[in-house]
Amino acid sequence: MRRLNRRTIAHAAAGVLAGVVGMSVAHLTAALLTPASSPALAVGTAVINATPTPVKEWAVRELGYADKPILIGSVLLGTIAFAAAIGVVARRRLRLGAVLLAGLVLLPAAAVVLQPLFKISYLIPTLVALVLGPAVLVFLTRALNANETPEPASQNTPEQPTVHPSDADTERLSSRRNVLVGFGALTLLSAAAAVGGELVVRSRAAIANLKLPRVGKALPALPTGLEEKYDGISSFRTPNRDFYRVDTKLAVPIVDQDSWTLTIDGDVERELTFSYDDLRERENVEHDITLTCVSNEVGGKLVGAARWTGVPLKDLLDEAGVGDRADQILSTDVEGFTISTPLEAALDGRNAMIAIGMNGEVLSRTHGFPARLVVPGLYGYVGATKWVTKLTLTRYDAATAYWTDRDWATDAPIKLSSRIDTPRPLSNIPEGRTVIGGVAWAQQHGVAKVEVRVDGGRWQQAELGPDAGIDYWRQWYLPWVAEPGSHQLAVRVTDRDGTLQSTDRATPFPDGSSGIQDIVVTVG
Hints:
Layout: H1 2-32, H2 39-50, H3 53-63, H4 67-92, H5 94-113, H6 124-147, H7 165-205, E1 261-266, E2 272-275, H8 276-281, E3 285-292, E4 303-312, H9 313-320, E5 328-333, E6 338-342, H10 343-347, E7 353-358, E8 361-362, E9 372-374, H11 380-383, E10 388-394, E11 417-422, E12 428-429, E13 432-441, E14 447-454, E15 459-461, E16 463-464, E17 474-482, E18 485-495, E19 517-523
Parallel strand pairs: 1-10, 12-19
Antiparallel strand pairs: 1-2, 3-4, 4-7, 5-6, 5-10, 7-8, 7-9, 11-13, 13-17, 14-15, 14-18, 16-17, 18-19
Pfam family, one: Oxidored_molyb
Protein name: DMSO/TMAO reductase YedYZ molybdopterin-dependent catalytic subunit
Region (Disordered): 148-171
């Protein structure tokens, strides 16, 4: 039984190694072609698309930026488990095992084919895995089976020459050594392919020798924020590396700016197409705008403030000539993902733009290079398409987008909100003089005042930090003498139209969270 268990484990390992070799070499192939064509990533994307909205919300809320690595890891672990079982089956029925492993590869092939902008070349990585995986399984299984051959008898027969025990032992040791060498070589191959794939992706993701064009009317430098004086308050300008990222991409699109274009079509007088250089050569503008994800919970971190550089969206639409039928802009990214934006939001005078820069730098691939849509006052899922390549003017009753197909609200204005950054919820702080501080935002109207309540008492007006316009958040702070014990802190914001932040509690689905952030801290 012990020998049987060892043999079963060895064949399971052979199945795993066959699957890993196939996946890793396919990943390297995809990195050289199109990262999204990687079989593992295609399956992960299919899982994202099929996941119910409540589960997606839970993942964003509980897992944060780790949701994508966890999903990819889960897909890989599931694949490995199936491959191990297939390896055990192949020990007795090699042909069936090879067929089952090929079938395991064909599932990602279906996911690849179902991608919105599928090209036949996307199947190349899957075909690599389809050939390589079963071939490795056959090789390893045959080697293991040969090593399991019973010891030859040490007797003379008319048909068989004499085999001494020492010769048999030597032959078995040689066979085992060959199996181990084969396992080791294939393990190194898979590791090299996996690492090589990541290096290729990183190399291709590098954006070399690009600088932002000069803007027509440069904004003055942002003033020093309260974070310089009060530890814990969010930076007035969110650094690019810290800016939140929420999207459906498991692999960031690698877009060549020289071949990329932005097309405006649909209900327009003339269809227009702009190259990356066309956008750079137009008069660019700067706007300070805070973006918020609709998945942001009350007091959440899925919000960031940046200075965006780009071309006014209205200028491009005016040049195309807006028709009289459309009521939405259906924007499409380079992989066919769609977002639906109210047309009115592009034409009502707000600072909507096609951004090519962020905080004085060219957009990173993570944040939408070469260009993205930025529409202040709207949650990202309706106004911030990254990697955008097409703007189609159409009607809501004629075309729907990814998130609206999943029952998120069609119109999604950002709700008034405020957040306590310091002290942190459930933290322990020393007694004495300190501050309560954080940020608040009231897009399209601007922050008029922020108020703080301690232990259910009266609302006290906080001091506001610098002002960068109605579409940008405001920092705030309130001096506080912290006395020993447990304390309850709450915050609310009022905009310049006199609208007070809602006290009604609502989850992010379907049109954004609302309610007052209320935290507990311990002093002493």
